[in-house]
Write a structure and sequence with these properties.
This protein has 411 residues and is of the alpha/beta class. It contains 13 helices and 19 strands. It has 2 domains: 173 residues, Flavin prenyltransferase-like (Rossmann fold, 3-Layer(aba) Sandwich); 213 residues, Rossmann fold, CATH 3.40.50.
Length: 411
Amino acid sequence: MKPSTPEPAVPRVVLGVTGGIAAYKAVELTRRLREAGFHVAPILTPDATRFVGPVTFSALASEPARVSLYDDTTTPIPHTYLGQTADLIVVAPATAHFIARYAMGLADDLLTATLLATRAPVLLCPAMHTEMWEQPSVQENLATLRRRGVLVMEPESGVLAGGDEGAGRLPEPAAIASLVEHILQKNDEGILSGRRVVISAGGTREPIDPVRVLSNRSSGRQGHALAEVAARLGATVQLVTTASLSLALDVRGDIEVLKVETAAEMSEAMLSLATLADVVIMAAAVADFGVLASTSKMKKQDGVPSLVLVPTLDILTTLVEKRRDGQIIVGFAAESDHVLENGLSKIRTKQCDLLVVNDVSKEGVGFDHATNEVFLIDRDEDIETISLRSKEAVSYEILSRVAALLTQGAQ
Ligand code: CTP
């Protein structure tokens, strides 16, 4: 008799639910994660049970929902059992209070104790009112967690509980489940191991005088998400960014960050780092024109000034001209009309290996959004649509194409 082949292990997701109104969406998330084939073990904080009861989660999950560190009839030490057996811990929604407790390393309930007792990756999905989301304390706590390697899925903007609008809404359960699938995809693991990836992010700022700058609306989020995901996929990552590092855009400690301001500074950094890179990604919105800047502050009483614009170096084109053998170069294009037509003409002129095109005139797409919808155009002018999803999930799609191009190049 032939020995039976062992069943592939079902990935185990611990789903932490904390006490916010979006806790109701975690019920749907539980169902979606089960449908995707994961084992789901829910942990509710005591406050979460004020919004949704553990019975609901127990009915949908793979094992009963747990709330307390004590009196568990199935195991005497639930936090180590859950922490050590998890393949991923997802906290959705993650409240401001929970984020603060986690950042401090507290272990005063089952969820925080489990987070201390794990080596599994952790994904936080914050949800709260905009005022809370924008508090420096919340952002600094998230920055601390990000530096430690915690993946944070940015909340979306939209209508919040109470009817007001702004950033802080929990992404839809389908979007969270799709990101979880990417993180747990075993065949993605290490696809960029041993590769050096250099990424630019954010909008450049060109000085007009010592006070004013000419800039654009890029937040740097897509480039930062790419850096984070590339590091997760095993790459050595260098990130050249204009984004503020004091807020939640802070990145994992193993990503080398170079802060720049102007197109000239970005050119210098990118061209120098690219000499050793396997992959270069120009996600930044680089100014096409700098300003012949005044050395002293322009004064209103001197009348309406005329700005003299000077062209900047096209970094992407220069990178392509100087490309190392086998190097993969990715460009971005933010378009507002004739999106595909402009994208096709851009990949023809820029001659990069992959062009990520987005239609910034669409709702939820591009600048300053947590989500993105893109077209990926390759050198054969094949076009693939990546529908609206989180910037982290879009990053997984881009980087898996990059990994495939690296492998093709090596053959
Ligand atoms: N880019 C660059 N250097 C510049 C301007 C753009 O490297 N001085 C890069 C961007 O990072 C992006 C790509 O070129 O990856 C396309 O940028 P985009 O602004 O869309 O295209 P442009 O060539 O500037 O053309 P236009 O603004 O006219 O659409």
